[in-house]
């Protein structure tokens, strides 16, 4: 239950949030879904390969779709440990400027079948990505609530499968507040969901249960020549530390532009930690034998950050944040009266989002 190349599709380009009919000039610009899709499958894919291809597509998009309203565009790249390798990657940017990606990873020691990976990649392209593409194209011709931030990019990781122990998947969306009136700063949101399935729910007999997971949002993250947002500062985090099994309605931002969602808090708690600087993390803690420990569970935290508008829109590419999930010793079982944990070793992974300003430098 964990959250889970098509033929050419040509559609008229439509400005984001524009509900009027496209002008004749706009109609001359056609969207080719294959041109704006990256599909990589190999025994091992490097981050340099991903960066080169996604940044080229963003360059092409900016050169062709000049009628898209000024906004931030971007792409996410996976953050994997030395014990893993990337074997599949998909990226697509849509006419609105919103984009999506999916990453398939395996253990560094695995000898994989590229045919099997290709099948998984194509299933995601023909399934979730096709649905998201259709939804986005339809949305471009409808009015959008002025109080909603613009989604920049949504990144999906493959399901991490720990046989007989549990499964986990991380899905993150990065947003930009296109309604703010502060001409000195730009505002961004990071919202992420960690979905987990315990072994007991997968197998149906009494083995591992959800016990402890951690999610970190790091807005100070830089990598190589890509720096974090200029003069970045975290302004809000949600949820705060909360105890007891409950569902919370959450939001980030202001009444003029607010990102709202709900999340469930496990029994016993979620604890928010401030690691340092602009780095925050949440511990999910479960009580053994409770329903939430024995079944599929999703936890969704979020963060708002602000940065210098003039620098962020100055032509460079920046990293909004890195999101990292850690399920090391995240599931537990009782063996002869002793609580035992798994999986051992390093079991942390995530992704980060690179963004650039698309349009002239002007306050919107």
Overview of the molecule:
The protein has 364 residues and is of the alpha+beta class. It has helices at residues 24-27, 47-64, 114-139, 199-203, 309-312; strands at 10-12, 30-32, 37-45, 71-79, 84-93, 99-107, 150-157, 160-162, 166-176, 185-198, 209-210, 212-218, 227-228, 233-238, 242-243, 246-254, 257-265, 268-276, 279-286, 297-299, 302-308, 318-326, 331-335, 338-342, 348-358. The protein has one domain (23-358). 16% of the residues lie in helices and 48% in strands. Strands 3, 5, 6, 7, 8, 9, 10, 14, 20 and 21 form a 10-stranded mixed β-sheet that branches. Strands 4, 12, 13, 15, 18, 19, 22 and 25 form an 8-stranded mixed β-sheet that branches. The radius of gyration is 21 Å and the shape is globular. Residues 136-155 are annotated as: Disordered.
Give a brief rundown of this model.
By secondary structure, the protein is of the alpha+beta class.
SSE order and pairing:
Layout: E1 10-12, H1 24-27, E2 30-32, E3 37-45, H2 47-64, E4 71-79, E5 84-93, E6 99-107, H3 114-139, E7 150-157, E8 160-162, E9 166-176, E10 185-198, H4 199-203, E11 209-210, E12 212-218, E13 227-228, E14 233-238, E15 242-243, E16 246-254, E17 257-265, E18 268-276, E19 279-286, E20 297-299, E21 302-308, H5 309-312, E22 318-326, E23 331-335, E24 338-342, E25 348-358
How large, in whole angstroms, is the Cα Rg?
21 Å
As a percent range, the share of helical residues equals: 10-25%
* Mean pLDDT score: 90
Structural class: alpha+beta
Q: What is the β-strand count?
A: 25
Question: What are the defining features of this structure?
Answer:
alpha+beta; 5 helices; disordered N terminus
